[in-house]
Write a structure and sequence with these properties.
This protein has 245 residues and is of the alpha/beta class. The chain has two domains: 7-147 and 202-243, Rossmann fold (3-Layer(aba) Sandwich); 152-197, no CATH class. Helices cover 28% and strands 35% of the residues. The chain has eight helices and eleven strands. The strands form two sheets. The protein has a seven-stranded mixed sheet, sandwiched between helices. It has a four-stranded antiparallel sheet with strand order 6-7-8-9. It is globular. The mean pLDDT is 94.
Length: 245
């Protein structure tokens, strides 16, 4: 019997996913990385891991800033595209963030653009944190960029339709239990497919509890310009955590 793929392994590896999110703001992403780099003041040629890197847009900028970067993602299609950008000090591999990368250690690990909390169980989150801690050097940094779940829930748009490149997307959003769901019906000519995005509505106190055994949270920001976090008004929840000694 063939095991069923987890929803993120299935949806993130389709060209429909990349079509739906093709207009992400690349300049905004680059500005965010520059702001982080200015704040963190990492040593030149630091060893960095971009965990759940997608097609590698953040990895590329980190490398341009003079660091050795490995970008990893579960999506084979994303990594295949990212590998076209490989160069000295910039590499990409398929990897499950819940697992350790044997034999490697990093000065800082980045998990950006709400790339955590896809799992059914909070135990999987703990596996991620343990793997990250084991791969970081002493006093290494873990940077998390997550949605501000409180604001997302308060301003949830229940229904939306989009047509992109002749493909129609019918999107419904809802909150059930500890998860925020996005149910997506894709109509591509006569082909109709259904996908579901599901992310845990992790809030600041959830991250504090999740990180506490392995990390100390040093800073909390609320947007890509690194302004103060406000649970009601901030667009993002950005955490800078240091591995415990």
């Amino acid at each position: 019997m063939v095991a069923q793929k987890e929803w993120f392994a299935d949806w993130f590896d389709t060209h429909y996913y990349h079509t739906l999110y093709k207009n992400r703001d690349e300049e905004e992403a680059k500005r965010f990385i520059h702001n982080l780099a200015d704040f963190l003041q990492l040593k030149p040629n630091s060893s960095l891991l971009d965990l759940a890197c997608g097609k590698g847009r953040h990895s590329i900028t980190l490398n341009e800033l003079g660091h050795k970067v490995l970008g990893v993602d579960l999506s084979e299609n994303s990594i295949q595209q990212a590998k076209e950008m490989e160069r000295r000090g910039l590499h990409f591999e398929v990897h499950d963030m819940r697992k350790l990368i044997p034999g490697l250690s990093f000065d800082a690990i980045f998990n950006l653009f709400t790339s955590l909390g896809y799992f059914d169980s909070t135990w999987d989150n703990k596996l991620v944190i343990q793997a990250v801690a084991n791969m970081l050097c002493a006093k290494g940094l873990f940077i998390i960029d997550f949605m501000n779940a409180e604001k997302v829930i308060a301003s949830l748009v229940p229904e939306e339709e989009k047509s992109i490149e002749g493909i129609h997307f019918d999107i419904k959003r809802l909150v059930e239990g500890d998860h925020i769901y996005k149910k997506i019906v894709v109509t591509d000519g006569a082909d109709i497919r259904k996908y579901t995005e599901r992310v845990q509505a992790l809030k600041l106190n959830d991250f504090q509890q999740l990180l506490q055994p392995e990390f100390k949270i040093l800073h909390t920001f609320g947007d890509f310009d690194l302004n103060e976090f406000n649970p009601t008004t901030s667009d993002r929840l950005i955490l800078i955590a240091e591995k415990n000694a």
